[in-house]
Specification:
This protein is mainly beta. It is built from 1 helix and 9 strands.
């Protein structure tokens, strides 16, 4: 529908239906999940992957994360028992046998993980240089 300009105010003359183009219903039973390995700048932004809500968290760690982050030189050194997990900024301890949905991870959730012994960009590799 159109709108009419009256002075400095825009007045709607009808409904303007907002249609979300990336709603969960268009991903064939999967949810978009954002993943971020904190302090590792080799990945400039969180990665977004479509995953089934029934995927066990253990499968995310065992199968999905190596495909996404396996090229990083520190990835093989991750001690998964020491990793700190966050749903956005809220810390949680995952149960590897429970699904993403059972962990409260909904469409467009952000899973961040921090590897305390591996600091990525916080590591200096020489004068004036930092790791990635």
């Amino acid at each position: 529908m159109a709108a009419e300009a009256t002075g400095d105010v825009m007045v709607a003359i009808g409904d303007y239906p907002l249609r979300q183009q990336d709603d969960e219903s268009v991903f064939h039973g999967k949810r978009l999940i954002f993943l971020c390995w904190e302090n590792h700048l080799m990945y400039g932004a969180p990665l977004c992957v479509p995953l089934p809500p029934s995927l066990p968290f253990g499968a995310l760690v065992r199968d999905v994360l190596p495909e996404l982050y396996g090229e990083h030189p520190e990835f093989e050194d991750i001690d998964w028992k020491r990793v700190q997990w966050f749903n956005s900024d809220k810390r949680f301890i995952p149960d590897m046998g429970k699904s993403l949905e059972q962990h409260g991870l909904s469409h467009k959730s952000l899973i961040k993980f921090r590897t305390p012994a591996l600091e990525g960009s916080r590591t200096s590799v020489g004068k004036g240089r930092q790791a990635f």
